[in-house]
Design brief:
This protein is of the alpha+beta class and 262 residues long. It has 2 domains: 160 residues, Uridine Diphospho-n-acetylenolpyruvylglucosamine Reductase, domain 3; 95 residues, Enolase-like, domain 1 (2-Layer Sandwich), CATH 3.30.390.50. It is built from 11 helices and 14 strands. A 5-stranded antiparallel β-sheet has the order 4-5-10-6-7. A 4-stranded antiparallel β-sheet has the order 11-12-13-14, with helices on both faces. The longest helix is centred in the C-terminal third of the chain and has 20 residues.
């Protein structure tokens, strides 16, 4: 069966085209690859790239708002993002290679929710809110499991809102071939407390409570020393054992705190 291609001019038009096994096309870095491998065969593709305003980046005193179709390269290159949340700019600059950064989008990355992707750690660690055409979803409620999110089949991400933290940094130990995170850790300190989000180590991004507790007592690199992370439930594969990933989490958190403190 031939896949139909749609190029809507608005979110409302795109939403009307969804249904059945229709799929949204953002940067296409994951979906197109899956189609080439025969792992996905949607009846239709709804391309979001022609919708005006979906790639906007806005910064005010409280938050950074990034349109769903903003590319990783655009986020990395934005001086406004770099001033407001340097950790977010650095995270975007470390995603994949130049081709991936030029094509991949923040909305696509979050909707796909790859267990080793960087943006889920950024969103969860910074306490972001995912804006859709229907509602707002807190990052704590958005990520559900392996490639699973709270998005409804008919829902379209339109923007992501990041509150500006007092300090934050992201560190990852990347898998050399794919440049995905073998383990990636986002640490953020704000008036509401400390958040530590981990990607690459499990089937989905998660918050590391032992590190949050330790860093809430004292936001310093040495607070990560001796923090034990339970290896049960962590990924165990040819790239690294569960125990190795558990070891990496506080190590990377310590580096992130040091970077956040400058």
């Amino acid at each position: 069966m031939q896949t139909q291609y749609h190029h809507p001019a608005s979110i409302a038009e795109a939403a009307k085209l969804l249904g059945g096994d229709a799929r949204l096309l953002a940067g296409g870095q994951s979906l197109v690859a899956a189609m080439k491998l025969g792992l996905a065969s949607p009846s239709s593709l709804v391309d979001l790239r022609g919708i005006a305003g979906l790639d906007s980046i806005r910064v005010d005193a409280q938050r950074v708002s990034i349109g769903a179709m903003a590319t990783h390269a655009a986020v990395a290159a934005s001086p406004d993002v770099a001033r407001a949340i340097p950790a977010l700019s650095q995270l975007a600059a470390g995603i994949g290679d130049r081709q991936v950064r030029d094509s991949g989008t923040i909305g696509g990355a979050l909707a796909n929710d790859d267990p080793a992707a960087d943006y889920p750690a950024g969103a969860l660690g910074l306490g972001a809110t995912i804006q859709t055409d229907q509602r707002q979803i807190a990052a704590d409620d958005f990520f559900r499991g392996l490639y699973e999110t709270a998005l409804r089949p008919s829902e379209i991400i339109t923007a992501v809102h990041f509150p500006i933290p007092e300090r934050a940094a992201y560190q990852k130990f990347h898998q050399p071939a794919s440049r995905f995170a073998l383990v990636g850790v986002m640490v953020a300190k704000s008036a509401t407390g400390v958040r530590v989000a981990v990607t690459g180590a499990a089937s989905a991004v998660f918050r590391c409570k032992p590190l949050e507790v330790a860093l809430s007592r004292k936001f310093a690199p040495e607070s990560c020393d001796g923090v034990a992370v339970d290896a049960s439930g962590l990924n165990d594969d040819l790239h690294g054992s569960a125990e190795y990933r558990a070891h990496l989490i506080p190590v990377l958190a310590k580096r992130a705190v040091a970077r956040a403190l400058g």
